[in-house]
Amino acid sequence: MDITWDVAHARLSHERMLHITKALISMRPDTVTLGGGEPLGVPGLFEILDQFRAAGIEVVLRTSGKSLHPSMVRTLLVSCARIEVCAMAFTHALHALHLFDIGAAKLDRHAVFGLDATGIRRGFDRLEDFCATTAAELPHLGFIAFSDTIGPDHAQYLQSLAPQSVRVTVETANTSVVRAR
């Protein structure tokens, strides 16, 4: 079982957040995805991550990267199984991906992280530039996720620009299609 918790929209007290964390742990999910606005702004987030990790539950973090501070990078890379940096604001996303890449270079094992461009509605030119240049500058980048709403021809073109080492997926309404390299 996988659970998605829009933790940032909850606006609950720290005690209530910990209570919900324990309740979710008791359900024994394989994965908990934390998102819903900007989870990095949630007070006590690292304590929540620690509890999930101690219970053997993988955590996926969905972030814009806006609130990412360099002091958070190591903890997030060690505590999460996957970090999806949303491309809604490219400036924040690029900054976050660079910080994660620098942090990952210092660790033997770390979360898989990458660019989630599934929700992008503007900035396709920035996405093209990211695939053609920036992705190659991030040796620890694990994935780029596109939405099928960008069109199959455009998605295929963007995939051709991405480095061979990066896993490229196209998310549809019901499934994720991995484009083999």
Structural class computed from helices and strand pairing = alpha/beta
How are the strands of the largest sheet arranged? 1-2-3-4-5-6-7-8
Overall pLDDT = 88
Uncertain runs are 176-181
Number of DSSP helices? Answer: 7
Question: How would the global form be characterised?
Answer: globular
Strand content: 15-25%
How would you spell out the order of helices and strands? EHHEHEHEHEHEHEE
In this structure, how is the largest beta sheet organized?
Answer: 8 strands, mixed
Question: What is the gyration radius calculated from CA atoms?
Answer: 16 Å
What's the count of strands?
Answer: 8
Termini distance? Answer: 29 Å
Approximate helicity band: 25-40%
Structure description:
By secondary structure, the protein is of the alpha/beta class. The chain has seven helices and eight strands, in the order βααβαβαβαβαβαββ. It has helices spanning 7-10, 14-26, 45-54, 70-79, 90-105, 124-132, 152-161; strands at 2-5, 31-34, 58-63, 82-86, 112-117, 143-147, 167-171, 176-178. The protein has an eight-stranded mixed beta sheet with strand order 1-2-3-4-5-6-7-8, with helices on one face. α2 (14-26) packs parallel to α3 (45-54) and α4 (70-79) packs across α5. The two termini are 29 Å apart.
Q: Topology of this structure?
A:
Layout: E1 2-5, H1 7-10, H2 14-26, E2 31-34, H3 45-54, E3 58-63, H4 70-79, E4 82-86, H5 90-105, E5 112-117, H6 124-132, E6 143-147, H7 152-161, E7 167-171, E8 176-178
Parallel strand pairs: 1-2, 2-3, 3-4, 4-5, 5-6, 6-7
Antiparallel strand pairs: 7-8
Helix pairs in contact: 2-3, 4-5
